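Need tokens for this chain, all 134 residues.
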Amino acid sequence: MYKKQGRPPQEVDKRSKKIDVRLTQQELMLVNTLAKASGIGRGEFIRKRLLAAGDQLLMDSRLMMGELDRLGLELSRSGNNINQLARYANILNRDGLLSPVVADRLILALKNHHGLKLKLETLIRKLIRLLAHK
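Here are the structure tokens for all 134 residues:
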């Protein structure tokens, strides 16, 4: 049997639809640079970037950054409270006057601080996953 010559058969799912997008010169240069660096053609690069997330829900980056800022501020305040309570507890302990109320407040502040830290870590993980899919 001989090898068939000529053009290979057409793909069943041929790309026949087109989307026109206007870019600035800088945006086009960035797309070209990124495509070249990834070693694939510009069209394939754009398709991969555009469709990489598939049917996943994308997150609003402004909302994410606002939440990160809010949690960072709360974490900072919580840390300041812990430092003040620890200093006060050390002074009272040194003088033999440490009361259970101060110790309980310190434990509560530590638990709150830990909860905020976990929320922040979760948000950062979501952000990293979001960026990894781009």
